[in-house]
Design goal:
- It is a single chain.
- The chain is an alpha/beta fold.
- The chain has helices spanning 21-39, 58-67, 93-101, 157-163, 230-249, 260-267, 275-289, and strands at 2-4, 43-47, 72-76, 109-111, 133-137, 168-172, 178-181, 185-188, 204-208, 215-219.
- Strands 3-2-1-9-10 form a 5-stranded mixed β-sheet, with helices on one face. A 5-stranded mixed β-sheet has the order 4-5-6-8-7, covered by helices on one side.
- Helix 1 (21-39) packs parallel to helix 2 (58-67), helix 2 packs parallel to helix 3 (93-101) and helix 6 (260-267) runs antiparallel to helix 7 (275-289).
- The N and C termini lie far apart (48 Å).
Length: 292
């Protein structure tokens, strides 16, 4: 079985990439072609966030559908595939792709996005693997110390292994790949393309022997991360420096969250932040993000 996650297929070009829209679309299609070639006659399982948004062009959906036409593939959805946390994905890009290519054969257990209970597991019927595998699209960090401040809903491999009894738990959502554990394991697949400066790292898919439990990391070829714009890296550093200066001005020791907005929202509730600083932060939230 080949496991992958967080494809984040999209029509618009991430601002960290120096590519035309056509080149970006071609690159994403070629990336999926490469994964299909690695998969061969194995099962391909994509653990959520197949698309970056609930909608995508017919060209992108149909191109990916054509690439996957002869592959045994199973998708589970992630938060980016959903429309406003609505579990009805019928009219989404994800739903359209699934109808076109997914085969109706039992594979592995999975936990729908937003659930965290044994009672919520969708079990394969009948169990077809010697290795009990559970798919989870949830933000999982390798240790608690790596969870950014103020990030809600994040968990750890230790918590997953304690909550569920499967031999292997395969995760999506966190774009940084890792493999945790010895006898029982948690595999976080990572993303397949670079869509922000922080993701400028090698990309992988994972081959799992469902009978022996052996896991092999396979690095994707044609890794065009060098096209990430140097100027964007410099601009991001300048923005971070300016933001650090702003946070120092208002007297907050809050570190960077997943976004400036998250960090500001966290800082505004810090007891050590003065009332005058709180007013300044609220004004920034309103002026930039429309938040009160």
């Amino acid at each position: 079985m080949i496991f992958t996650a967080d494809w984040h297929l999209r029509d618009d070009v991430p601002r960290c990439r120096d590519q035309s829209q056509k080149d970006w679309l071609d690159f994403q299609i070629s990336r999926v072609e490469e994964i299909v070639q690695i998969t061969g006659s194995d099962d391909l399982i994509v653990v959520g966030d197949v698309f970056h948004r609930p909608t995508a062009s017919h060209y992108l959906i149909n191109s990916i559908s054509d690439v996957l036409a002869n592959t045994r593939v199973k998708f589970v959805w992630g938060n980016h595939d959903m429309r406003a946390r609505d579990n009805d994905l019928t009219d989404t890009a994800y739903g359209t792709l699934v109808r076109q290519v997914q085969e109706a054969h039992p594979l592995v257990d999975w936990l729908p996005f937003g659930r965290f209970s044994r009672d919520d597991i969708v079990y394969s019927d009948p169990p077809s693997r010697a290795l009990e595998i559970l798919l989870v699209h949830q933000l999982v960090f390798e240790s608690e110390s790596l969870i950014p401040p103020g990030v809600a809903g994040a968990t750890t491999p230790q918590a997953l292994l304690k909550a569920f009894g499967h031999d292997l738990i395969v995760c999506g959502d966190n774009h940084t790949p890792f493999l945790y554990g010895k006898n029982r394991k948690v595999l976080n697949c990572g993303s397949i393309t670079t869509q922000s400066v922080s993701e400028n790292r090698p990309k992988f898919v994972w081959r799992v022997d469902e009978y022996t439990g052996d896991i092999k990391q396979i690095q994707l070829k044609n890794d065009l991360t060098e096209i990430v714009a140097d100027r964007y890296t410099e601009e991001k550093k300048e923005r971070d420096d300016r933001f650090d200066s702003f946070m120092e001005l208002v007297g907050s020791t809050t570190g960077h969250g997943l976004s400036y907005e998250d960090t500001l929202l966290d800082a505004v509730n810090k007891p050590e932040v003065s009332e005058s600083a709180r007013v300044l932060i609220k004004a920034t939230l309103w002026g930039v993000y429309g938040k009160t």
